[in-house]
Amino acid sequence: MSTVLTDFDTWKQFLADRVQQAKKIGLSEETISNLAYEIGTFLDEKVDPKNDEQRALKELWDVGDAEERKTIARLMMKLVDHSK
Q1: Where are the domains of the chain?
Q2: 44 close to 58: Cβ distance less than 8 angstroms
Q3: How would you label 33-69 residue by residue, b for 16+ Cβ within 10 Å and e otherwise?
Q4: What CA–CA distance (Å, rounded) separates 77 from 16?
Q5: pLDDT at 83
Q6: Which pLDDT score, from 0 to 100, does residue 76 have?
Q7: 20 to 30 Å CA-CA from 84: which of 8, 9, 14, 41?
Q8: Which fold has domain 2-82?
Q9: CA-to-CA distance for 9 and 27, rounded, in angstroms?
């Protein structure tokens, strides 16, 4: 899992795979988005950024309010969905 956290492209692929799995088991976009928000909160509180992209996301997350953070989570889902 360490490569997943240190390489942004690997992280995006990992996230894309998880989003696809969630869709395959029938989770709604809203449920997936809520999970992405919870994961973002966990990462913000427990994981130090390992690269420039993660640092930028953390800085955005830290200055955002709850709604803005939910938007960041939805945008990350959209990013990985379009990058596969």
Answers
A1: 2-82
A2: yes
A3: bebbbeebeebeeeeeebeeebeebbeebeeeeeeeb
A4: 7
A5: 73
A6: 92
A7: 41
A8: Cytochrome Bc1 Complex; Chain D, domain 2 (1.10.760)
A9: 24
Between the CA of residue 39 and those of 2, 23, 25, what are the distances in Å? 16, 17, 19
Residue 80 identity (one-letter amino acid)? V
With a CB cutoff of 8 Å and minimum separation 6, the contacts of 51 are 6, 7, 8
Q: Which of 39, 45, 46, 34 is nearest to 70 (CA)?
A: 34
> Please, what are the averages of pLDDT over each run of 10 residues along the chain (84 residues)?
76 89 93 92 91 94 96 92 76
Q: Phi, psi at residue 47, to the nearest 5°?
A: -125, 125
Tell me, what's the pLDDT at 84? Answer: 62
Cα three-residue angle 6-23-65, rounded to 5 degrees: 60
